[in-house]
TrEMBL record:
One GO cellular component, as annotated: cytoplasm
Entry protein name: Alpha-1,4 glucan phosphorylase
InterPro entries named among the record's database cross-references: Glycg_phsphrylas (IPR011833), Glyco_trans_35 (IPR000811), Pyridoxal_P_attach_site (IPR035090)
PANTHER family (UniProt xref): GLYCOGEN PHOSPHORYLASE, MALTODEXTRIN PHOSPHORYLASE
Sites bearing N6-(pyridoxal phosphate)lysine, chain numbering: K664
An example Gene Ontology biological process: glycogen catabolic process
Enzyme category, top tier: transferase
Cofactor(s) the record lists: pyridoxal 5'-phosphate
Keyword Transferase: yes
Keywords, ordered alphabetically: Allosteric enzyme, Carbohydrate metabolism, Glycosyltransferase, Pyridoxal phosphate, Transferase
Native organism taxonomy: Bacteria, Pseudomonadati, Pseudomonadota, Gammaproteobacteria, Vibrionales
Presence of keyword tRNA processing: no
Single GO MF descriptor: pyridoxal phosphate binding
UniProt record similarity statement: Belongs to the glycogen phosphorylase family.
Species this chain originates from: Aliivibrio fischeri (strain ATCC 700601 / ES114) (Vibrio fischeri)
Length: 817
C-alpha cells in the first residue's frame, strides 16, 4: 500500500522524541550537546518509525504466505542510511524543518553519520541497490549479511603510501538505525567429528561440533520508496555461548577466562581478514559458514513459523548466492534436511537444488574461490562428506552423458585433484543451483563460452544473464538534488520509481536554455567537490577544468596505471612540446588496495607522488591536477559522481563483469571513456556511439594478441610518447634523490609481461583522451551529449534488474501492503 508519510507525520511528536533520546539515551543536555549527539538522537527517533513498519511488514500474513527471496552476501555496502531513508519515507523536507526548529541544519547533521563499513566494492554496493529495489517494488525479501565490528579499513596516506586503520563504523554509541533481535539468535558449530548411529533400524550420520557459538541478529531497515513496507537487512554478530569463565578468572587465569569470548568475537571482527596464511584462511571460512548457518536456520525458522511443510521450502523461499562466498550454505541446508529433519537424500536434494540460485561476478581464475579439502574436513567434517556425495552423484551423470571422457570429468568435478585437493566453490554452485546468472550481457556470454562451457552444455538453459543496475533513489534523487529538481521540473516526479521515464528529457538535449541549466547544475556539483578537496586536502581546483574520474577498487585489471600513464604523457607534453594545447583537466582517483596486494599499493604510491609534483609545478599551472581522495566510501562517491564530466571505465576487455560506477556517472551526466567490457557495451548501445568514447582491444582481439605471444617491449620501443611516459617512473622526477622508487609499475609492464595489456591499449587510450579534450571545447555539443547520457540510461536501474530476477529466476509476486 502506498502511503502518505507526510500526512501521518507529527512534527511536534518527532521533536519531542529527538529531545527525549538526547537526554534518556545519550545523557546529554540540549544546550551543550554536540552535533554528533543531536544526529544520534535524531536517528533514534527516525528509527522508531521504521522499526514499527519493519515489525508490521514481517508479521503481515500476505508476506508470510508469499514466496520470498533471501539474498545472501558477505558484503552490503549500504552507505549512510539517514538521508536515503528520508527520501524513501518522503520526509526529507519535514525533518529538515523540524531539526531547523531545534537549531540544527539537517545537511550538517547528516555529515555526522559514518558509513556502515559492511563491504568492499561493487559486490556490496550492488547488494545494497538490490535490497533498495526489492523494497521499492515490494517483492518479499530479506538480506542476510554479517555484522562486522570493523569494516574493510580506514584508508589514509603517509608520504603517499596507503595506511590502514580499523574502521569502527558503529562507534561506542552504536548505529542508531539498527535493532537487535535476540529472539531470533541461532547456534552454530565448528570442528568436532561425525558419528554413526542407528535409528529405527537405519544407519545415520550426525555431526558433533567441537566448538559452538551464538549468532546474534541485528536488523537494519530497508525502507520501501513511498510505502509502509520495510524489509530487514539481517546482520549476524558472532558471540560466545558462555563468554566468561568465573572459575578460570578466580584461579588467576584472566586470559583463559575470556578465551571463548575472544575466539567467537574474531569471527565477525573484520571484513575479509587477510587470508595469505593458514589462520586467516580458517577464519574466513568460519565467517562464511557462520553467515550461512545462521541465515539458513533463520529461513527455516520463518518457514516453520508460517506453518509451511518442510517439503514446500522451495515453493516459498529462494536463496540467492551473491558470488561464491555463501556457497557452504548448500551442504549446510542438505545437512539440516537430512541429519536434523530426517529427510532422504533424494528429497533433500530435490528441495535444495530448487532453492539456491547463484550470481557469478568474475571471470578471473584467481577470483574463483577454492578451499582445501583438508581445511573443510577439519572445520566442517559433515559438510565435506556431503560435498563428496554431491560430487559423486553429479559425476555419475556426467559419465552417462560423456562416456569415457576423463577431461570432462576433470573440468566439471567439484573436487580439483592435485598435490592438495581443493573444493571448487563455483562448480558446487552451478551443480546445486536451479539458475546461474552473469551480470552483464557480455559477461554472461563469456561465462557460457569460456568459464563454464561444459556446464552450459550439461545444463542447457541454466546459465542466464541479469544486467546489473543502480538505485536511482540514492544515485540521482538523493546525491544530485540539483539535477533531480531540474528533471522533475520537465517530466514530473515519478521517475525515481520508473527510471525509463528519463528518456522524456532527451527532447531537451538541443534546447539551449535546458543545456545551460544542466551545465549550471554540473558546475555547482563540481564546486561542491572542489570545496571538499580544498578543505580536506588543501588543493585548489579550477571548476572550469574537465573533471575526469576513476573511482573503484584498486586492481591491475581495472588499470588505474593506464590512467596514470596518460597523466604522465600530458605532463611530458606540457613540459617538452612548445605550444602544446590542452583544456585544463583534473584527474580524480579514489580506491582502496587490499592490504596484501603489493602492486596495487605501489600504483597508489605512484599516483600520489606524481600528484605532489604536478600539483605544485609552476610550469604546469592549472592545466593539470591530480587528486587521490583517501578513504573512498559511499558518502564520498555521492559527492564525486555528480561532479564527474568524464567517467573512466578502462578495464581490459573481458575482465570486468559489469561495473556499476559506469552506470551511476552516466546517469549523472558524465561521458564514459571505456573499453568494450562489462556493461560499457550496453551503455554504448543505449546512448549511441556519438555519446561515448570507446577505445582499445575487444575481447577477441585480447585473446588473439595473447595467443600470438604478446611482447609489451615492442609497444614501448615503437611509441616515443609511451616511452617518455614510462621512463618518468624510472628516475627521480617525482621522488627527488630516490631513483627508481616508482619503478615497480614500469618493471611489471615491461618485464612482468603486462598481463592486462596496458601498453597495447595506451596509444588508442591517448587518442580517446584527445577526442574528449576536443569535444569539451564545444560546450553546447558537450551539454547535449551529457543530457543524452542521463536521458538514455534508464535501463540501468536496479529496479529493472530486480524485475529481471523476479520474472526469469525467482518467480516472485509483489505484495502491496
Amino acid at each position: 500500500m502506498k502511503t502518505n508519510n507526510i500526512e501521518k507525520f507529527d512534527k511536534a511528536a518527532f521533536k519531542a522524541s529527538v529531545k527525549q533520546h538526547l537526554v534518556t539515551t545519550f545523557a546529554a543536555d540540549e544546550k551543550t550537546a554536540s552535533a554528533k549527539v543531536w544526529y544520534l538522537a535524531m536517528g533514534k527517533a527516525l528509527a522508531e518509525l521504521t522499526t514499527f513498519d519493519l515489525v508490521a511488514t514481517e508479521n503481515d500474513e500476505k508476506i508470510k504466505n508469499a514466496r520470498s527471496v533471501n539474498y545472501l552476501s558477505l558484503e552490503f555496502l549500504i552507505g549512510r542510511l539517514t538521508g536515503n531513508n528520508l527520501i524513501s519515507m518522503g520526509l526529507y523536507e519535514e525533518i529538515t524543518e523540524a531539526m531547523g526548529e531545534l537549531g540544527y541544519n539537517l545537511t550538517d547533521l547528516l555529515e555526522e553519520e559514518r558509513d556502515p563499513a559492511l563491504g568492499n566494492g561493487g559486490l556490496g554496493r550492488l547488494a545494497a541497490c538490490f535490497m533498495d529495489s526489492l523494497a521499492a517494488q515490494e517483492y518479499p525479501a530479506i538480506g542476510y549479511g554479517l555484522h562486522y565490528e570493523y569494516g574493510l579499513f580506514r584508508q589514509s596516506f603517509e608520504d603517499g603510501r596507503q595506511k590502514e586503520a580499523p574502521d569502527a563504523w558503529c562507534g561506542v554509541e552504536g548505529y542508531p538505525w539498527e535493532v537487535a533481535r535476540p529472539d531470533f539468535a541461532q547456534q552454530v558449530g565448528f570442528y568436532g567429528h561425525v558419528e554413526t548411529y542407528t535409528e529405527k533400524g537405519q544407519e545415520k550420520r550426525r555431526w558433533v561440533p567441537g566448538m559452538s557459538v551464538e549468532g546474534m541478529p541485528w536488523d537494519l531497515p530497508i525502507v520501501g520508496y513511498q510505502s509502509d513496507t520495510v524489509y530487514p537487512l539481517r546482520l549476524w554478530e558472532c558471540r560466545a555461548k558462555a563468554p566468561f569463565s568465573l572459575a578460570s578468572f578466580n584461579n588467576g587465569d584472566y586470559f583463559e577466562a575470556q578465551h571463548a569470548l575472544i575466539d567467537a568475537g574474531n569471527v565477525t571482527k573484520v571484513l575479509y581478514p587477510n587470508d595469505n596464511h593458514e589462520k586467516g584462511k580458517t577464519l574466513r571460512l568460519m565467517q562464511q559458514y557462520f553467515h550461512c548457518a545462521c541465515s539458513i536456520a533463520d529461513i527455516l525458522r520463518r518457514h516453520d513459523a508460517a506453518g509451511h511443510k518442510i517439503e514446500d521450502l522451495s515453493k516459498y523461499e529462494t536463496i540467492q548466492l551473491n558470488d561464491t562466498h555463501p556457497t557452504i550454505g548448500i551442504p549446510e541446508l542438505m545437512r539440516v534436511l537430512i541429519d536434523v529433519r530426517g529427510l532422504s537424500w533424494d528429497t533433500a536434494w530435490e528441495i535444495c537444488s530448487n532453492t539456491f540460485a547463484y550470481t557469478n561476478h568474475t571471470l578471473l581464475p584467481e577470483a574463483l574461490e577454492t578451499w582445501s579439502e583438508s581445511l573443510i574436513s577439519r572445520l566442517l567434517p559433515r559438510h565435506m562428506e556431503i560435498i563428496y556425495q554431491i560430487n559423486y552423484l553429479f559425476l555419475e551423470g556426467v559419465k552417462l552423458k560423456w562416456p569415457g571422457d576423463v577431461d570432462k570429468l576433470r573440468k566439471l568435478s567439484i573436487i580439483e585433484e592435485g598435490t592438495h585437493r581443493m573444493v571448487r566453490m563455483a562448480n558446487l554452485c552451478v551443480v546445486s543451483s536451479y539458475a546461474v546468472n552473469g551480470v552483464a550481457a557480455l559477461h554472461s556470454e563469456l561465462v557460457k563460452r569460456d568459464l563454464f562451457p561444459e556446464f552450459n552444455e550439461y545444463f542447457p538453459g541454466k546459465l542466464t544473464n541479469v544486467t546489473n543496475g543502480v538505485t536511482p533513489r540514492r544515485w540521482l534523487k538523493f546525491c544530485n538534488p540539483g539535477l533531480s529538481n531540474l528533471i522533475s521540473g520537465k517530466i514530473g516526479n515519478e521517475w525515481p520509481a520508473h527510471l525509463d521515464q528519463l528518456s522524456d528529457i532527451a527532447v531537451f538535449a538541443d534546447d539551449e536554455k535546458f543545456q545551460k541549466e544542466f551545465m549550471a547544475v554540473k558546475k555547482q556539483n563540481k564546486q561542491r567537490l572542489a570545496n571538499w578537496v580544498q578543505e580536506n586536502m588543501g588543493i585548489e581546483l579550477n571548476t572550469d577544468a574537465i573533471f575526469d574520474v576513476q573511482i573503484k577498487r584498486l586492481h591491475e585489471y581495472k588499470r588505474q596505471h593506464l590512467d596514470l600513464l596518460n597523466i604522465l604523457s600530458l605532463y611530458h607534453r606540457i613540459l617538452n612540446e612548445p605550444g602544446f594545447d590542452m583544456h585544463p583537466r583534473v584527474f580524480f582517483f579514489a580506491a582502496k588496495a587490499a592490504p596484501g596486494y603489493h602492486l596495487a599499493k605501489e600504483i597508489i604510491f605512484a599516483i600520489n607522488k606524481v600528484a605532489e609534483k604536478v600539483n605544485n609545478d609552476p610550469r604546469v599551472s592549472d592545466l593539470l591536477k591530480v587528486v587521490f581522495i583517501p578513504d573512498y566510501r559511499v558518502s564520498m562517491a555521492e559527492i564525486i559522481i555528480p561532479a564527474a564530466d568524464v567517467s573512466e571505465q578502462i578495464s581490459t576487455a573481458g575482465k570486468e563483469a559489469s561495473g556499476t560506477g559506469n552506470m551511476k556517472m552516466a546517469l549523472n551526466g558524465a561521458l564514459t571513456v571505456g573499453t568494450m567490457d562489462g556493461a560499457n557495451v550496453e551503455i554504448r548501445e543505449e546512448v549511441g556511439d556519438e555519446n561515448i568514447f570507446i577505445f582499445g582491444l575487444e575481447v577477441d582481439e585480447v585473446e588473439a594478441l595473447k595467443a600470438s605471444g604478446y611482447s609489451p617491449y615492442k609497444y614501448y620501443e615503437a611509441d616515443s610518447l609511451l616511452q617518455a611516459s614510462l621512463d618518468l617512473l624510472a628516475g627521480d622526477e617525482f621522488t627527488p634523490g630516490k631513483v627508481g622508487l616508482l619503478s615497480a609499475i614500469r618493471d611489471n609492464l615491461l618485464y612482468g609481461g603486462d598481463p592486462y595489456l596496458v601498453l597495447a591499449d595506451f596509444a588508442d587510450y591517448v587518442r580517446a583522451q584527445n577526442d574528449i579534450d576536443a569535444a569539451y571545447r564545444d560546450q553546447k555539443q558537450w551539454a547535449k551529449m551529457a543530457i543524452l547520457n542521463t536521458a538514455l540510461v534508464g535501463k540501468f536501474s536496479s529496479d529493472r534488474s530486480i524485475r529481471d530476477y523476479v520474472n526469469n529466476i525467482w518467480k516472485l509476486e509483489s505484495v502491496n501492503r
